[in-house]
Write a structure and sequence with these properties.
mainly alpha; Serine Threonine Protein Phosphatase 5, Tetratricopeptide repeat; 4-stranded mixed beta sheet
Length: 426
Amino acid sequence: MNRFLTNLTHVFANRQFGMFSGSRPSKILALFPLAVLLSVHCVGQDQNPTETVADSSMQKPLVAYVTTEEFESEVLKSDVPVLVDFTAEWCVPCKVVDPIIESLMPEMDGRAKVFKLDIDESPEIYQQLGVNGVPHVLFFKDGEEQERISSPQEREIYVEYLNALIDGESALNVTVKLLGQDEFRRHYILTKDVEVVESTMDVYPGLLTKQFENSQTPISLILNFPSVRQDQLIEMALAQDPPISPNDLVGLGRCQEFVEAIQQDPDALNHLDPDGNSPLTTAMSRSHRLEEDCVGTILDLGPDLSAGGGSKSMTRSVVLLNDDEMLSRFLELGWDPESRDTTGKNALHWAALYGYLSNVRVLLEHGVDHTIKTSDGETAAQIVQRALDRRLQMLEQNSSALSETDLAEIKEIVQEMEGLVALLQG
């Protein structure tokens, strides 16, 4: 499978999961750059959950790429531990992880092997091992996978795992030690498979109960980070009988209990949890996962429409609802769609970025200025045009490898994107 087809496979697979807080992505999203579709991690988690800052400015020694043909001999039959960095040229978070991994090679020379694997060039290994997106770093010893890490981490974490495996220590011991670090535990809870989280509780009982350093609780953390495993994680966390805050109530869909809590404490309506999430942003984050969400209930109570955001800004949260009626209601209540968030984008920029054509129309009809630029100097039309240009170039280079059916669908999507650009240009 060539690079273009593999990329399209990743995109269409992502569309099946209702990305972006469970929203219904438009067809236009299929051709947007993967960096646009993904949020922390190119797999579709909405953000780097731990907000880990890694130094990508270090020197870049050459690290060999391992391929499908070489994987067994170089990795599975290696007599020393092996680190494999699953990466891709189009993956933006990989540009943070890759230099860190490359810097490990001189330090580990002769003691462990360090490889990169391009998932577009060797998709078979990526699929066989069930690697859920990139970047992903896997550790091997004696032919067996020992641990895997997704999303960028500090260099020391990769070093600790390698040194432990070199010294004959188990990866599990390293994991338990690292779970004492706030950011690593957040990352672990949000990115590991449910079965792994459950088994880890046997050796680290406080995994889903111990408060983080800022007093945030694991249940509140989970409620504000939608994923395909979120409902199962919530169930596991609730089984530990954690304290439930008013903010948590709306994330759990317990709207009437929230109303009763507000009657007792009106200030709780706009209270921000330790991570900066308001009840409204938490409710919006969970809206696509609940049969009856609490967004409307909170709006009836008259919240501050500029308060909070946490992992997502209020602006982005409203757009991610992908609900024209709810968007119109926010506008009627005085919410400012032209206000730029900390990323430098307003509501029109986000709607364009996600390809939400009907949301774009609602915002333009409301009078949002389409000429406003992001902090990077782009208008909403230019955001879409940049994505369109990139996809057209890929299509031109690879059209001969596509079936007539795929080609027709992609051309239809391109036409929709062109229509969105025209709409945004006024």
